[in-house]
Design brief:
CATH class: Alpha Beta
Mean pLDDT: 89
Structural class: alpha+beta
Shape: globular
Order of helices and strands: HEEEEHEHEHEEEEH
Number of domains: 1
Helix content: 25-40%
Family: Belongs to the SCO1/2 family.
Protein name: SCO family protein
Strand order of the largest sheet: 1-10-9-4-5-6
InterPro entries: SCO1/SenC (IPR003782), Thioredoxin-like_sf (IPR036249), Thioredoxin_domain (IPR013766)
Distance between the termini: 31 Å
CATH superfamily: Glutaredoxin
CATH architecture: 3-Layer(aba) Sandwich
Number of strands: 10
Oligomer: single chain
Strand content: 15-25%
Low-confidence stretches: 1-21
Pfam families: SCO1-SenC
CATH topology: Glutaredoxin
Radius of gyration: 18 Å
Keywords: Copper
C-alpha cells in the first residue's frame, strides 16, 4: 500500500470514527455541543409581530442568547461582543445573525426589544412570546431563568451561555460568558467553513 493510499484510509477512518470535527480549530473557550438534541427550533414573534423560526436563518451562523433588556451586565456584554464579532468578520458578517430572546416578556415590549437590540447592531433580532411559551422555549433550550424580587420591582436570574448554530441549523457551540471577541470570531469562522 502506498503512503498516499494509507493516508487516505486513515483519513477516512478519522471521519467515520470522530465525525471529523476538527476541535483544534475551535477557540479554547468553545464548548463543543455538536449533536445535542435540544434547542432545535422555536416559534417566537419579532418586534413587528411576525412569527420567526430558527429554520429561516439557514445559510447563516446564528447566535441565540436568552436575556432581558434591563439586565445590568451579562446581556449587554454578550450583545456588545456579538456586535464586535460581526465587525471583525468583515464581509462575512452578513452571514452572522444574532437573536436575543427575552425571558421577561412582561416588561420587554416589542418596541423596547427592537430599540435594545438595534442599539448594538441593526441586524440583531429581539424575539418574544407570552409567559407560557417563554417557559416552554427556555426549557426546550435548557435555559434557566427566574424572577427575583428586588423590593418594589424585580430582576431576572438566567443562564448566561450563548448558542452558536452552523449554516445548516445544527447546534454546535456553547459560548461562555467570559469568551473573548477573538474567541467567538474564531468559532463563527470555524462554523462558516464547516
Amino acid at each position: 500500500m502506498t503512503h498516499s493510499r494509507l493516508l487516505a484510509v486513515l483519513l477516512t477512518l478519522c471521519v467515520l470514527l470522530t465525525g471529523c470535527v476538527p476541535r483544534e480549530k475551535m477557540s479554547p473557550t468553545a464548548i463543543d455541543i455538536t449533536g445535542l438534541e435540544y434547542g432545535k427550533d422555536f416559534k417566537l414573534s419579532d418586534p413587528g409581530g411576525k412569527e420567526r423560526t430558527l429554520k429561516e436563518f439557514r445559510g447563516k451562523v446564528v447566535m441565540v442568547f436568552f436575556g432581558f433588556t434591563q439586565c445590568p451586565d451579562v446581556c449587554p456584554t454578550a450583545l456588545y461582543r456579538a456586535a464586535e464579532v460581526k465587525k471583525k468578520l468583515g464581509e462575512e458578517g452578513s452571514k452572522f445573525q444574532t437573536i436575543f430572546v427575552t425571558v421577561d416578556p412582561e416588561r420587554d415590549t416589542p418596541t423596547l426589544l427592537k430599540d435594545y437590540t438595534h442599539a448594538f447592531d441593526d441586524s440583531f433580532l429581539g424575539l418574544y412570546t407570552d409567559l407560557e411559551n417563554t417557559r416552554k422555549t427556555a426549557d426546550d433550550f435548557r435555559i434557566y431563568y427566574a424572577k427575583v424580587s428586588t423590593g418594589s420591582t424585580y430582576t431576572m436570574d438566567h443562564t448566561a451561555i450563548s448558542y452558536l448554530y452552523d449554516t445548516k441549523g445544527n447546534i454546535r457551540i456553547g459560548i461562555k460568558p467570559n469568551a473573548s471577541i477573538d474567541d467567538v470570531t474564531q468559532d463563527v469562522r470555524f462554523l462558516l467553513q464547516n
